[in-house]
Amino acid sequence: MPSKVFFGTARQARLEAKETLPAKLDLILNELHLRDRVNKETVVIKMHTGNNMIYSTIHPVFVRRVVQAIKDGGGKPFVVDVNWDTDGAEKRGYSNEVIGCPVYPAAGPDEKYFYEHERPFKNIKSWKVSGLIQDSSFMVNFAHVKGHPSCGFGAAFKNIALGCMAGNTRGQMHDAMHFDQYWFPEKCPDKSVMQQIVDSCPHNGVVIDKNDPNQLHMHFEECN
Q1: What global pTM score does this model have?
Q2: Which residues contact 179 (CB under 8 A, 6 or more apart)?
Q3: What is the mean pLDDT of the chain?
Q4: Across-strand partners of 165?
Q5: Which end of the chain has the smaller Cβ count within 10 Å, N or C?
């Protein structure tokens, strides 16, 4: 059975507060019965707080409305993201004073707080789930759509699948693209042909492998 999707358009039919996006978010929160579901829950709000001068993340005004709804329902909310993004998040408006709840690094300031789960897949032997994620009893997946160099777009799935993992696992997940063999050196023993392949990419997406000169390495991010 498909999930119900709520949509709030940025278009305003009238110059009234109820026509604004924050007001439409309030309506969606009501439809989701968020307040009724979070009483006495420890609620983690997983979102991307950006980095450096990034400004295209979810505006703090929207975050505060979600936080307030959780508080109204008797929940204890806090926001998490990866450590290098929460470090300096207040410069982009994500602070307790602005959004109404604390902002924490999901796996601790040094990415050392996690729970390890053994689930072998390709190059990944175990998955390190960020400690504050697993400790929570309720999650709000507050994601925005963004471009991504490896997969084209990232949104709700990426916010959880990648964003809830500790650093070591995140790196392994990116490296999984190279697990399945895509270069077969026995089919191209001629070094000059290898170099022609490298030179043919105007974006440096194909390079000689730094660890093995007989291998070619793909930078998939450059391709996309």
Answers
A1: 0.88
A2: 122, 123
A3: 94
A4: 129
A5: N
